[in-house]
Amino acid sequence: MLLRHIHYLLAVVEHRNFTRAAEALHVSQPTLSQQIKQLEEQLGVQLLDRSGRTVRATDAGAAYVDYARRALRELEAGRRAIHEVQDLTRGTLRLLTTPTFTSYLVGPLVARFNARYAGIVLQIREMPLDAIAAALAEDEADLGIAFSEVRSEEIECQPLFVEKLSVVVGAHHPFARRHTPITPQDLAREPLALLSADFATRAHVDAYLRKQKIAPLIAIEANTIQAIVEIVRCGKAVTILPDAIARENPALKEIALTPRLPHRTVALLRRTEGYRSAASLAFAELAETMTQDEFR
Fold first, then answer.
1. How far apart are CA 11 and CA 36, in angstroms?
2. pLDDT, tens digit, for every residue of 29-61?
3. 40 lies in which domain range?
């Protein structure tokens, strides 16, 4: 059964005449009659009553015509949906991110995307880097925001900006009044409030402390960045966080450290050679533009 069979049948039912239907379809009458016959043979039922002066649908034909018209309406809706998805008036974008970026990057980025493409539904999930890579490889998401440390041929990375880690204290901490950089030895004497070991940030902090051969005084561990921010803001603990987080909170202060803490490349992750929807391409372009303006 072909789509033209349905169009031919509906034209005959509408015009109640093969000749007029053939003229409207710009086909010959024998061709039209042959196509209707093929449809009837495929369905195993007579669709048209040709015995009178005008052609009309049989009972079976009338039932079939109702479904045929409904099917054409759905197909037309599908055609419109394709165009709406391509012009970003509708669609879905599945985005994964590590918790670090939820605290300072995802909010403004998603707000701009939503303001520009209000019809796109965003589905956002937080998860560790390894889980993001696995989900992208299994096509369970369209894009991920994480660090470029993924080592998989199935995942490609689009660098966005370099994230800098900083020593961060509350406004009332003695470090906040210093005008010269602190040393790792200074840091070793302070109670630290750090993210828990399942954060990629913590792995970088631990590696730095080991390299400097200091034994830190870890007083507090938390599994949310917001908890660390509030603990440091209200107390005397010191933390190490991305500098963008400190810049966004006027109650926190970045402290220079020598040797400096490591830098990491933030990237947009996607499945290598995977399907690129219009929404994912638009989000990637916006992410590159925004981060270039604000973080480079």
1. 11
2. 999 999 999 999 999 999 999 988 899 999 999
3. 3-86
Q: Is the overall model pTM greater than 0.85, yes or no? A: no
Nearest residue to 218 (alpha-carbon basis) of 206, 229, 208: 206
Element (H, E) at 267: strand 263-271
Report which secondary-structure segment, H or E, holds 80: helix 59-86
Find the CATH number of the domain harbouring 202.
3.40.190.290
Q: Does residue 169 sit in the same domain as residue 188?
A: yes
E strand or H helix that includes residue 9 = helix 3-15
Same domain, 115 and 172: no
CA distance 183 to 170: 18
106 and 192 belong to one structural domain? no
Strands 91-97 and 143-147 turn out to be parallel
Place of tokens 């990491």: 264
Tell me which DSSP letter residue 128 carries: -
Is residue 78 packed enough to be buried (19+ CB in 10 Å), middle (13-18) or exposed (0-12)?
exposed
Give the C-alpha separation, 151 to 134, whole Å.
11
166 and 147 in a common domain = no
Which two structure tokens, joined as six digits, stand for 279?
A: 């929404």
Structural domain count of the chain: 3
How distant, in Å, are the alpha carbons of 100, 183, 284 from that of 276? 25, 47, 10
Q: What are residue 165's DSSP bridge partners?
A: 242
Average pLDDT, the chain: 91
User: 152: domain CATH number?
Assistant: 3.40.190.10
In whole angstroms, give the CA distance from residue 228 to residue 237.
Answer: 9
Q: How far is CA 16 from the centre of its chain?
A: 52
